[in-house]
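note to self: the first set is below, dont mix up w the second
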Amino acid sequence: MSRTTRRITLGGVALGGGAPVAVQSMCSTDTRDVAATAEQIRRLAAAGCEIVRCAVPDEAAALALADLRRQCPLPLVADIHFDYRLALTALQSGVDGLRLNPGNIGERWKVEEVVRACAERRVPIRIGVNAGSLEKDLLARYGHPTAEAMVESALRHVRVLEELNYGEIKISLKASDVRRTVEAYRLLAARVDYPLHIGITEAGTTWSGTIKSAVGLGVLLYEGIGDTLRVSLTGDPVAEVRVGWEILKSLGLRQRGPIFVSCPTCGRCQIDLIAVAEEVEARLQNLPRAITVAVMGCVVNGPGEAREADVGIAGGQGMGLLFRRGQVVRKVPEKELADALVAEAWRLVEEEGAEGEA
């Protein structure tokens, strides 16, 4: 499925209009600590992050964005709430995008000043609706943060920008509840053609949050809804980026790095497959090309899966066969399987070129 949207550009990254779904994250550092924030951004970029957002709680943070912009290899988005002056300072600092809600900025003239400054720089605005901070009148009308209430809130903010003739907009509708989030995006997607930023907010720790995000974002992306995404996890934001890519890879929407195939193990497995699989995945996570790597543990499905992969191993009793593009390379002792597979994967990339989608 696909959804036709207008296209906007955020710091050189195209969003909507058929562009690939972009992966983004948000720094967990104090924005005023430029060194720590810049270092985290570099780690995010290395993991495949394509857009990064920073919190701007005060003027010092807004001013720090100027230094960050000079050091940041990614499009930089300022997260603004309540104070329009922070948005203006962030724009003067050179940010590529704003995340704000016109409704919580205050009087109309304040919104007009922000929009005017964005228009001068062609800086997109993300209207970010969150179920935990809906307007009081909407909560009174709907009783609680329903999908319909979230959509009405978003459309209210959109109208403000449209009345000011500003169309560089993307929208997000996030809740911690998967079903409510999915329904809200479905409703909004039928009403507007702006690019949508998707995510399950406050999804949880890396374990539970990954599952909730994969379910919610997987449904939306399969239905063609979503132009950029963030996986919100309690933990290192680098994990958000890796999970985001895995979600896109599982649906065939983007490819970056290896695609891992490994069996769940059973009583037929005669090697320590779990240890081998975990080691291989960790050592190849930054492989600069989308190749399929199979780590298989028995003689039933193992040879077939390993043969179909770009590189793979099929374990036997204390040994394993190393495959490359359907051909057996050699027999390898169990203790050397991880090293042999990792080396073969890198050899394949080096020989055939490291180019792959990112």
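second set (the one i keep forgetting abt)
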Amino acid sequence: MGLWLALAAYLAGSILPAEIFVRWKTGRSPHEFEDNPGSGGAWRLAGPVAGMITILFDLGKGAVPTWIALRAGLSLSELIAVAVAPVIGHCWPFYKVIRLDRGGRGLGPATGALFALAFREVVPAYVLGALAAYRFRWLPSVGIVAFPLSLIFMLWWKVPPERLAAAFAVMLVVLIRNVGLLWTVVQTRGKRLPH
């Protein structure tokens, strides 16, 4: 069951509503506007309704399969595979991998998976991440602040090790996808932050 659930989660992760909304409104991909096919890009390029639908869809495609995997009592490796699959699908959709193109940054489905894994511990970290994003006017600040704090809170409140391992794997995928973005921030010292 774990393999099929991970495959379905990857395919669901490959659906990028921001790409759909922006192409419907402008006829172009968010990448053509040098923007990201996530909720922020959808909001900026297609409006607040498109942004909100994208946020909810991206959260759901990470949360639902992870919640199912937890309820099904899958093994540790299967839980990790299911939790990271929608994030991988969001970052590297199957139809873009063929063209060596990228999808989104992965924060939406990663957040959904983390909410399913440890909601009580993750929510306070995300509140602080949202405050940082508001302060710096840069959406990726949410994850930069929330991911390490989530791990700290999960350790503090003694989340079961299998949930902690899956959460770490999800965060690692997002980190790998965004290494270039983080390097840009370090090099520019945040003077010209990308969207």
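remember for set 2: DSSP finds ten helices and no strands in the chain.
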